[in-house]
């Protein structure tokens, strides 16, 4: 009972995903990433499958091998919905026969949308179209896709939580944000993202070159500097 959008930016090399669902704390259960890949496990979610996928990717750098490893490790695969988006190449997905409809997956040039218990068959294509039409940071494009999916039918139950994560250069997460319990989680997440993105470069600098980085009070309260 979830819809997710994984995407990549071929110009920057950034890779990431966003997810929303009708239960709490989806960011704790759905999705993981590492350099070069996003893996998704949802429907009747087993978060352990993310680590299976990341290990398979580290050993093979193959989306096919990664998805196969997750499928092989899954208990009751017919309840699982899985996705793999590599930094290069074709995204792959699996939707088990017991996943609640509308369900499935749709791929774009640089994105993968998967979902189940959706309000309409239009949700997944709308997510890809919204992502591909959007501009800005990868996280903003992911959110545009998620909001387009929500507008096209969303999930059949009211959304309650959402998350967005983007891995940038030097294996640093430039975005890692969650809304765990809300009556309008995608809108709340979009507002949180808008507040975070102007601060993200300064926090990246604190990781890479702390001697040159500003004080956190300066980052958070530039009007007082």
Automatic annotation (TrEMBL):
Gene3D superfamilies: Glutamine Phosphoribosylpyrophosphate, subunit 1, domain 1. InterPro entries: DUF1028 (IPR010430), Ntn_hydrolases_N (IPR029055). It comes from Roseovarius nubinhibens. PANTHER family: BLL2871 PROTEIN. It comes from the Bacteria. This is DUF1028 domain-containing protein.
């Amino acid at each position: 009972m979830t819809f997710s959008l994984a995407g990549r930016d071929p110009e920057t090399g950034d890779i990431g995903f966003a997810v929303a669902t009708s239960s709490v704390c989806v960011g704790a259960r759905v999705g993981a990433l590492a350099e070069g890949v996003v893996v998704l496990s949802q429907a009747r979610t087993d978060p352990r499958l993310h680590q299976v996928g990341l290990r398979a990717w580290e050993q093979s750098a193959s989306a096919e091998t990664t998805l196969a490893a997750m499928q092989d490790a899954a208990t009751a695969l017919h309840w699982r919905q899985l996705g793999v988006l590599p930094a290069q190449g074709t995204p792959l997905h699996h939707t088990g026969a017991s996943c609640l409809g509308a369900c499935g997956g749709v791929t774009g040039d640089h994105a993968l949308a998967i979902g189940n218990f959706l309000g309409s068959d239009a949700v997944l294509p709308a997510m890809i179209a919204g992502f591909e039409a959007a501009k800005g940071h990868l996280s903003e494009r992911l959110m545009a896709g998620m909001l387009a999916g929500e507008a096209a039918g969303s999930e059949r139950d009211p959304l309650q939580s959402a998350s967005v994560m983007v891995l940038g250069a030097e294996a640093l997460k430039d975005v890692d944000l969650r809304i765990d319990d809300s009556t309008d989680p995608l809108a709340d997440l979009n507002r949180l993202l808008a507040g975070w993105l102007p601060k993200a470069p300064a926090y990246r600098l604190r990781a890479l070159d702390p001697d040159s980085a500003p004080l956190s009070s300066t980052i958070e309260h530039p009007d007082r500097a």
